[in-house]
């Protein structure tokens, strides 16, 4: 199909393509005439048929189809196409009557003795029109295929641009949300006069550098993403040290693997925000990396039904991002039972 469409883009190949079709058509006619003879000998009429075929095809492609076919005025297009074919048949009849029949009578008198000498011969004009019909139709179908292909390419490009815009918006929503919570943690430490505040500032500086200069990439090394998570966990651990039981571990080979940035953070952020908002609690974070998949499991204690708030902006955004990035090729389970909230994620890396 691609090869056929490329023919449309090369004027010389168009003419060659026409010539092949016409030559084969003439060959079939000769085969019917001579029954036992099948020859590729070109007829003299080809010297007028080829230019007329090119003229008709271009007129159909660049005038009739844009004006009628692509605007869905199909009846007008059919009528115009039939008229165009009749004009082409009449034009070919004119060349035959004025040039090829007189020359034929000179050089092949036996073959042209019985030829009708009246120009307005309806049968000859209709036959010539039918000769151009398959050429125009084939070229028309190729044009439709090309237009459909261009539409599909444009649609995919629009979808890609839309996806990029949506991803940028979701990231922009995540970043302020994250920094708002982190600054709250830092503020709590400064109120306590903690000496660890300087370490939090250093970690926060690293996180900001990651957000501004590295997380804008389409993918980031998995090693850096996990380091980013460790910095965030360190900050929150300092904030909730007196009422937090935390277990964090990851396993598997992470060298050379990449991941979409800021994809795992919202699950961990949600655990701190909702699991420790009003009381002491615990959080378990486990990351397991295999050859082609990453498994994240975050569990946290959660308050009673009357006090528990639904997951906020972070998880809502990450669900949208997962759908945009993976379609149906991921697994996310969110479950709350017996005072435990669990997030279980599996993605390909």
- Fraction in beta strands: 5-15%
Tell me the count of domains: 2
What is the CATH topology of the largest domain? Heat Shock Protein 90
CATH homologous superfamily assignment of the largest domain: Histidine kinase-like ATPase, C-terminal domain
> Any idea of the CATH class of the largest domain?
Alpha Beta
End-to-end Cα distance? 34 Å
Describe the structure.
The protein is an alpha+beta fold. The protein folds into two domains: 2-155, no CATH class; 194-348, Heat Shock Protein 90. 64% of the residues lie in helices and 13% in strands. It contains ten helices and seven strands. It has helices spanning 2-8, 11-34, 46-69, 74-107, 109-112, 122-192, 197-214, 222-239, 265-275, 313-326; strands at 220-221, 244-251, 258-259, 281-289, 293-301, 331-337, 340-348. The strands form two sheets. A five-stranded mixed β-sheet has the order 2-4-5-7-6, covered by helices on one side. A two-stranded antiparallel ribbon has the order 1-3. A hairpin with a 3-residue loop joins strand 4 and strand 5 (293-301). Helix 2 (11-34) packs across helix 3 (46-69). The longest helix has 71 residues, at 122-192. Residues 1-12 and 30-35 have low confidence and may be disordered.
What tags apply to this protein structure?
349 residues, alpha+beta, Heat Shock Protein 90, 2 domains, five-stranded mixed beta sheet, two-stranded antiparallel ribbon, 10 helices, 7 strands, rod-shaped
Question: Which helices and strands appear, and what pairs or packs with what?
Answer:
Layout: H1 2-8, H2 11-34, H3 46-69, H4 74-107, H5 109-112, H6 122-192, H7 197-214, E1 220-221, H8 222-239, E2 244-251, E3 258-259, H9 265-275, E4 281-289, E5 293-301, H10 313-326, E6 331-337, E7 340-348
Parallel strand pairs: 2-4
Antiparallel strand pairs: 1-3, 4-5, 5-7, 6-7
């Amino acid at each position: 199909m691609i090869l056929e469409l490329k023919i449309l883009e090369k004027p010389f190949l168009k003419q060659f393509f026409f010539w092949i079709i016409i030559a084969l058509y003439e060959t079939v006619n000769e085969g019917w005439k001579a029954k036992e003879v099948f020859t590729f000998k070109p007829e003299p009429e080809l010297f007028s048929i080829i230019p007329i075929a090119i003229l008709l095809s271009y007129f159909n492609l660049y005038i009739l189809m844009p004006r009628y076919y692509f605007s869905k005025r199909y009846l007008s297009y059919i009528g115009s196409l039939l008229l165009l074919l009749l004009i082409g048949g009449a034009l070919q009849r004119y060349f035959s009557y004025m040039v090829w029949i007189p020359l034929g009578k000179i050089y092949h008198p036996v073959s042209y003795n019985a030829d009708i000498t009246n120009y307005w011969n309806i049968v000859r004009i209709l036959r010539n029109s039918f000769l151009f019909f398959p050429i125009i139709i084939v070229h028309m179908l190729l044009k439709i295929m090309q237009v459909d292909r261009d539409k599909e390419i444009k649609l995919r490009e629009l979808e890609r641009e839309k996806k990029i815009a949506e991803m940028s918006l979701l990231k922009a929503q995540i970043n302020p949300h994250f920094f708002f919570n982190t600054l709250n943690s830092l503020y709590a430490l400064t109120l306590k006069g903690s000496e660890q505040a300087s370490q939090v500032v250093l970690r926060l500086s690293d996180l900001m550098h990651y957000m501004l200069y590295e997380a804008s990439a389409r993918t980031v090394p998995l090693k850096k993403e996990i380091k980013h998570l460790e910095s965030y966990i360190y900050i929150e651990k300092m904030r909730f040290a007196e009422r937090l039981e935390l277990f964090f571990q990851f396993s598997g080979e992470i060298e050379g693997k990449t991941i979409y940035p800021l994809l795992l953070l919202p699950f961990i952020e949600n655990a701190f925000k909702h699991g420790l908002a009003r009381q002491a609690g615990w959080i378990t974070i486990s990351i397991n990396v295999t050859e082609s998949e990453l498994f994240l499991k975050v569990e946290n204690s959660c308050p009673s039904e009357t006090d528990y708030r639904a997951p906020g902006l972070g998880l809502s955004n990450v669900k949208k991002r997962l759908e945009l990035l993976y379609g149906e090729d991921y697994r996310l389970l969110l479950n709350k039972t017996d005072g435990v909230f669990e997030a279980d994620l599996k993605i390909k890396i």
